[in-house]
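Thread amino acids onto this structure.
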């Protein structure tokens, strides 16, 4: 039986990762919006998580496990915001969009910086700013398509 490494060598198989470098027109800031909302939700959950003061070993372990999972999800989704904002910046937005929306570059830059800050910290105000910044990108994105974006439709529910 022929092994997979031999087949890969013979056919020169290479892993490739891309969105779509063909102008497919399938772009949407909704992934960044959901990711930013997830960051906010994880910050809220981290801040609401009670430490078991006099708990047994199992309670302390469960607390550490839950906290670790919240942090991992928060950081994963903050990175996803960065990726999606970068994807829109490099693959969707064109020079004519920058001419019409001169703050577009700084908005993308601010969003990616906020996403990085949210990976490093647990700050509710920073997480809310991230959601707002993604909304600014979404508003510009939809305006380039002639659609009025209302962030109130996609408003974050601040409950648990």
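Threaded sequence (160 positions):
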């Amino acid at each position: 039986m022929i092994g997979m490494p031999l087949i890969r060598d013979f056919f020169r198989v290479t892993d490739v990762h891309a969105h779509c470098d063909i102008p497919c027109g399938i772009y949407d800031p909704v992934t960044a919006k959901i990711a930013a909302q997830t960051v906010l939700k994880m910050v809220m959950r981290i801040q609401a998580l009670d430490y078991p003061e006099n708990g047994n070993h199992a309670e302390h372990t469960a607390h550490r496990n839950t906290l670790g999972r919240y942090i991992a999800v928060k950081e994963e989704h903050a990175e996803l915001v960065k990726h999606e904002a970068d994807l829109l910046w490099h693959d969707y937005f064109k020079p004519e969009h920058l001419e019409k929306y001169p703050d577009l570059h700084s908005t993308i830059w601010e969003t990616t910086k906020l996403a990085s800050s949210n990976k490093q910290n647990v700050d509710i105000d920073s997480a809310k700013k991230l959601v707002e910044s993604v909304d600014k990108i979404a508003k510009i994105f939809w305006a380039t398509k002639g659609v009025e974006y209302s962030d109130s439709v996609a408003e974050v529910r601040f409950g648990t």
